[in-house]
Amino acid sequence: MAGSGLPMQSWTVAAAKGHNAFTDLAFWQDEFWLVYFTAPTHLGSSQSQLILLHSPDAHAWEQAACWKAAGAERRDPKLAVIGDRLFVYALENRSIDPKPCLALFTVSADGKNWSEWAPLFPDGWLCGKPQSADGKTWYAPAHNLVIGNGLKLLRSANGMDWDFYSDISAAPGADETAIIFTADGALVALTRMEPGAGLFGGGRQGTLVSRSQPPYTAWATVLQTNAIRLDSPALFSADGFYPPDGFYPPDGFYPPDGVYAIGRSQPDSDRFLNQIGSAFSRKRTSLFRVGGFAPNSEPSLIHLADFPSSGDTAYAGVVLHADRVWVSYYTSDPARDDSWIVGMFRPTQVQMASFNLADLASQVEMTTPQ
Questions:
Q1: Are 170 and 151 in contact (CB under 8 A)?
Q2: How far, in Å, CA of 26 to CA of 119, rounded?
Q3: What is the dihedral of CA 102, 25, 312, 324, to 10 degrees?
Q4: HSE on the CB side for 52, CA within 13 Å?
Q5: In the chain, which ranges are continuous DSSP H helix?
Q6: Per residue, what are the HEC states of 79-93?
């Protein structure tokens, strides 16, 4: 169910024996590290766990840690390598209908011994995946489900102590956000927008793309669309990416420039129960190019590919390693093509996918309007 001409490999990491969800991926100490959530269903549960795996090749995995729910559950984990230590960030949830209310972290220098989970900042603020342009100063997005219209940029020097640095957006419904640096030093944010969201979705759902130049204190809207709501976004950029010493790319290889997003998308929205964001619609984990940052690129979200996916899906992690893009995500059985709400109550599996940068560049060339 790949739905496009982008050649990719895909394989299962955690089989659908429970509801496995909310992945993230990092490359640290010459290994891939993958974290995910598992529970009986998508809903909040005292039986939920976070599982951390590691692998030298992203195929053969070993468990490094397991954190069980303790009073409240931890979900939506994110990984970051800061100061040569691996951080796991997660959101505390205290209700069956998941409404995360607190950001937490744990950190390790060896992947075996982990600090006690500790709160990141006051209740209500939910931290996204941290990013850095220089390995010294780290930034992360944070949204607030309590006040409903707060989207801020956080700043930290150590991954543990964070300051509220700037306001990305005050638009109602600003939710999950991913950030990425571009080659010119700008910081780009892509936000899931769901004002007044409910089971049936609606015409106000969408995606916000914002940009800020150093020192990242002022933000401008690049694109706001109600045609696509990209849930659980993850961003990556190949600008300035060069394979490590010893890798010799094929003739004609060039890194594709621009910003790319992976998230949960909706392939159609043509009836009442199928409006943008509807829980009764079909879903995919999809790859988009975010236009407006490469030379001669207009603001846009251009669909490039669907990963084998359906039902309850997405929450991707992305690593660029050697000449390839490596992606973790979760999905219901792709062969069934369940609706999102059905998928929330059925088993789901953790998947890996991989494709090379040369093929991504070719796909961009084929799908970019002339």
A1: yes
A2: 22
A3: 150
A4: 26
A5: 340-343, 357-367
A6: EEEECCEEEEEEEEE
pLDDT single digits (tens) 158-213: 999 999 999 999 988 999 999 999 988 999 999 999 987 688 888 899 999 999 99
Per-residue DSSP letters for 219-262? -EEEEEESS---EEEEEEE-TT--PPTT--PPTT-----SEEEE
pTM of the full structure: 0.94
The H or E element spanning position 27 is strand 9-28
Q: Is residue 3 part of a domain?
A: no
Range of the domain at 210: 9-367
Check which CATH number belongs to the domain holding 205 and give it. 2.120.10.10
Backbone angles phi, psi at 109, to 5 degrees: -95, -15
Tokens representing 183?
């080659």
Total domains in the chain come to 1
- For residue 15, give both structure tokens: 């089989």
Whether 1 is in a domain gets the answer: no
User: How far is residue 281's CA from residue 195's CA, in Å, rounded to a whole number?
Assistant: 18
Supply 64's token pair: 């490094």
